[in-house]
Design goal:
- This is CRAL-TRIO domain-containing protein.
- It comes from Aristolochia fimbriata.
- It holds the Pfam family CRAL_TRIO_N.
- By secondary structure, this protein is α/β, with parallel strands linked by helices.
- It has helices at about 5-15, 20-30, 35-45, 50-65, 80-90, 120-145, 170-180, 195-205, 210-215, 225-230, 265-280, 300-320, 325-330, and strands at about 90-95, 105-110, 150-155, 185-195, 220.
- The protein has a five-stranded mixed β-sheet.
- Strand 3, helix 7 and strand 4 (about 185-195) form a beta-alpha-beta unit.
Amino acid sequence: MGIASQDAVKQFKDLIDQVDEPMKKTFENMHQGYPIETLIRFLKARDWNVNKAHKMLIDCLNWRIQNEIDSILSKPIVPVEVYRAVRESQLIGLSGYSNEGLPVFAVGVGQSTFDKASVHYYVQSHIQINEYRDQVVLPLATMKYGRHIGTCVKVLDMTGLKLSALNQIKLLTVISTIDDLNYPEKTDTYYIVNAPYIFSACWKVVKPLLQERTRRKVQVLQGNGREELLKIMDYASLPHFCRREGSGSSKNSNFGSGDCFSLDHYFHQQLYNYVKEQCMNLQLAVPIKQGSFHVDFPETDPEGKKIAQTIECEFHKLGDRNGLSRTFSGLNISSK
């Protein structure tokens, strides 16, 4: 880190040291003993502009306080049937760790339907996984590998991706915006695998619109990406959809408990039990209320809307050129 960067960190720290006690407390819950590394993440997200990074972090701390994010891991999604429905339609899991100790999160982009619960349940689930990653998974990795580990890698499975998935752009934009504003620079690399033509066409449209910092993090791998991924992790840490010779399947795995999307997988069992224990530790005097934990949605980035509209426009052009207009007639992602 250069002198200019060190100066930026010092200025930023001096500003954050002046916040009130509630903000200091939630900041401690955020940084988990690594405040400087957390400040650096926010500085990176704002190209090392101290004023912009300061505003971003203050907004984040306010968001956490107003939405009680520090206690979200003590608020289970109940009943269990609803939680299972969320897990079956929002495919994400922890498959293992990279050779450098970074947690490997698998995401079933192509087969996640987000259609079995309200938006609030999916947002709650996503934030809980983020918080569990930051409060449990990353600290354990740090202890195990003897150095600070503050990021993860994500393997995004595009198996089964259809145009209809773009109709979920509103929910996906909400989740993405929450991550961008409140969990910046937590993902080291995004690996795209099992990419069909639809994704390839979409990526050509989206890639030029992304910031250079984001583009550098995305690697589109050939096929299921197994050979490339084995360079950074062992076989046991590969997501189940990367273990086969051909294209994998996000939902139907021959590896039983190795299907890291399954509620029966050890990661989801640990997460579920952890949330249940945290809830019991509060010694609530009243039964847990059924219903989702509502979190204020941040205002979505105008650039995200522009990207969505561009994708829609390009796909309609593609349909017109190839006589597929009927296929695209129901696609209207800009209004979602």
